[in-house]
Amino acid sequence: MKTKPRFIRWFTDISIGDIPSVGGKNASLGEMFHELSSQGVKVPDGFAVTAEGYRYFLHSTGLDSRIREILGGLNTGDMDNLQQRGGKVRQAILATALPSDLEDEILEAYQELGGAGGVPLDVAVRSSATAEDLPDASFAGQQETYLNVQGNASLLEHCRRSFASLFTDRAISYRVDQGFEHTAIALSIGVQRMVRSDLGSAGVMFTIDTETGFRDAVLINAAYGLGENVVLGSVNPDEYHVFKPTLKQGFRPILQRRVGSKEFKLIYDTGGSRMVKNVPVSPGDRARFALSDDDILQLARWACIIEDHYSAKRGQPTPMDIEWAKDGRTGELFIVQARPETVQAQKNRDVIQTFKLKASGKVLITGRSVGEKIASGPVRVVKSVEYLREFREGDILVADKTDPDWEPVMKKASAIVTNRGGRTCHAAIVSRELGVPAIVGTEHGTELLQEGQVVTISCAEGDTGFVYEGNLPFEVQQTNLKDLQRPRTKVMMNLANPEEAFALSFLPNDGVGLARMEFIINTYIKVHPLALLDFDKLADQDAKAEIEKLTRTYAHKPQYFVDRLAQGVAMLAAAFYPKDVILRLSDFKSNEYANLIGGKAYEPVEENPMIGFRGASRYYHPRYQAGFALECQAVRRVREDMGLTNLKVMIPFCRTIEEGQSVQAEMEKHGLKRGVNGLEIYVMCEIPSNVILAAEFAEIFDGFSIGSNDLTQLILGVDRDSEIVAPIFNERNAAVKTMIAQVIKVCREKRRKIGICGQAPSDYPEFAQFLVEQGIDSISLNPDTVLKTSLAILEKERVLDKGTHA
Fold first, then answer.
1. What is the β-pairing status of strands 753-756 and 778-781?
2. Which of 49, 91, 406, 480 is 20 to 30 A from 763, alpha carbon to alpha carbon?
3. Annotated catalytic, 685?
């Protein structure tokens, strides 16, 4: 009868309660292997060398006493001493053979895992510390993972290397900082079948947005080859956001796709002395996404299953940090690791800290922002680990990428900038843990930023991080939301930038009263829609070349417009789901449309574009009908394919009842019929005719939103673009207020919703109070005025309540 192994446990026999025996990584793999396989989650099989095996190795060889002796009285602040002592410990472990009975058990399990095949099985050897992935301390990445390990001798060697990795410099430093005794933590080893992602792709995903803490999105990073390049930040990966609530309802809500440069891929080194090697990726593959939509959605579904399982297990919401791999031979997806996310999940959401630049400056370089802070300091370009000892407290660390050996120095940095890496790379993860702003994936940061140059790092402007020249002033505001009352009048927001939506969703709000389509077109599309539709016939060769560059992955150019617009709108709708998000359809003037790439050929030259070919008049006109069709396709995709039915649409600058009917007929041609699938269509109230005929407009629209800027312009006859008559422009003029009071009254009588999205209530709290007095349903504000104006609204509501009860 075969003796039961003393030091080996198979994944099928391991659960999350076995952390003391097999460490966090292995416990999680075992938990998923036997609990989630029935739900379709695939985890490669394997076994763990237990912590008891590690302790047996140290005790039976006398290494435990030797380690305590070497590390006694260590000062982790002394980098040279830390490196010297850490090296001694690792050398002692690597020079010591494993006990023969431990070796025998490891090799027997390895042979059983590989089956009867003649070729040695290729496995991943993963270190799993017994204090790893605790909710209040992240040991993740402190120990090593070895890929493509084949054969008995190599497996035993890498088991010793794994044991030694418990004593890397950064692991020693981290334990001291976290208050853990070195001998109180043991190391288990996971030996797991390799997924041939060297022939496919791999990466990381989080069930929470890593920058903002927004919990309803899965963030996926992907690159070609083995996953270590993504984890370590050696490449700039693709990035995808998937919306969890409607994914669970059966929709396909890929909110955003960003193609990364994916410069290299890590593959098997079959002919060399190393186990793996990095090779360049072809330009064609770099320009393509590493995952199909079906793969993205499958991974996101698994992420939700894993999160729900761990949340139920722990009795509280548990966002997860997950590693995945796709086998290039079979096309199968696998989960190769999962742990609780330890940064955003623990943030105090009752207090909002907002950083804001008080001046603008020259932009030196941009990348992906990590965190939402701003910092200034002198640049310190660190090209290799040897230069780390020159780093000073408060310097801006600029490097090609970082790795775990750099962590003791990263604690001293006021900010971090890297050439490579995405928002799940090593530099990004550590900077979040430290609360330090970082900009990753700049590509040329080490070349363009000069040693000693003073710069300002801003991660407070959305997904794009900016490095500005000089020391720019900024302010920090803290707001405690815990005891903040909510007014009866709905307080919504005016938004344009999809990159800011997740972060702004934490402000007290009732949704988005104005989502500006123009910003998305200007920033993310840049091309006139008709130029995309007529791409093959374009006469402007310069414009054609620019469009080709932007749309290189699209054979059908108009699809670029639909995809990019749908993704930008979806980010806004998802951030505030299920609250209303009211999207104003394109409201460029003809001169603004002409400034889009390829736009001049399609736009008239008008003396006064402000009251010319704009808004509703464009949508059904033969000159723009085909472009409007693309806008409708994007809206329909967001509502129907992604399930974001909280998205409502709003028609700007609708001059007559007949025009409103013509626009709705045009929308209906493209599958957007008022009332179907809950679609509500609003109209901007920004022309005197909208007020005078409010009762008639109320018959064909679901609601009104007052555009006080244009309404003031047309009531007072003031061109708001003219500096000469600018002093006359005043939303608080009695004529304007009379018109606003009149339309609110009609809407209340007709039981139609009415709000305001113009600038006035953001600038003048007393104007917001006037609107409350008139009985307006909602006030939409610029985000930076939401809290201040909410207080003014509450004050007015209290006064009105007292008057009612007097």
1. parallel
2. 480
3. no
